[in-house]
Amino acid sequence: MIRLAIQKSGRLSEDSLNLIRECGISFVSSTYKLKTEATNFPLEILFLRDDDIPGYVQDGVADLGIVGQNVLVEAGHPELEVEALGFSKCRLSLAIPRGANYTSVADLQGLNIATSYPEILGRYLAGEGVQAQLHTISGSVEIAPSIGLADAICDIVSSGSTLLGNGLREVETVFRSEAVLIATQNLSAEKQEILDQLRFRMQAVRRARR
Ligand code: PRT
Ligand code: ZN
Does 182 lie in the same domain as 84? Predict the structure, then answer.
């Protein structure tokens, strides 16, 4: 039996469950249950907050997980990725108030930037030779400039309508992300074999969808 952690409720949940079902794996899930066992495959599914998934897999509490690369890399465990899954595509971008002048990333020098991704952003800015003050906040990042908390933000964008609605303009893409399957290192031979079967099925599902 292998243990897979997926997001309990959020943007990854439905696509994660659909992928498992399309792999031909049957299970019963209810809103109140935090774990369930598949009836026709040696799989147990845990339902967790997405932010907790990299840590659980790193510690081996869960063998596998499905999480956004943004959360995985921010948590400092990119090495756990085994398979890109092609859904929940988004980007982590820098944005500034619509009216502000901007010609290049150097214009961010010395600014206050609000973000939930200080690790990824810090590395990006260091690579660009830009020094800025990062303010880590866990949500509603887009509101920060209009309330005077920051000069710029760095947050997840998909359609761009949240930026637009908050008077912000996207100026740089820092990181591109999609959902990925992650696995703990040093799986037992039995679990490795189950993982191989699961990946084989996931790849077949993706080929069939194209
Ligand atoms: O409760 P839990 O901690 O599990 O969930 P969460 O609220 O932290 O995460 P959730 O469900 O919002 O997102 C899960 C994952 O989906 C993220 O880590 C990304 O990998 C991916 N994803 C894809 C997104 C988006 N698209 C997205 N648009 N995550 C967040 N957003 C938010 C973004 O933060 C911004 O506020 O949507 C807004 C922007 O959307 P647009 O379409 O207006 O640009
Ligand atoms: Zn989260």
Answer: yes
Mutate to test the pocket of ligand 1, among 11, 157, 159 (most ligand atoms within 8 A of CB): 11
What is the DSSP code (8-state) at residue 159? S
Q: Domains in the chain: how many in total? A: 2
* pLDDT interval class at 30 (50, 70, 90): confident
Same domain, yes or no, for 103 and 37?
Answer: no
The domain in which residue 98 lies consists of: 90-177
**Interface confidence (ipTM) of the complex:** 0.98
**Shortest-distance atom of ligand 1 to CA 155:** 34
List, in sequence order, the alpha helices (H) in the chain: 13-22, 53-59, 69-74, 118-128, 161-165, 189-209
Task: Tell me the pTM.
Answer: 0.97
- Shortest-distance Cα residue to atom 14 of ligand 1: 11
pLDDT at residue 31 greater than cutoff 80 = no
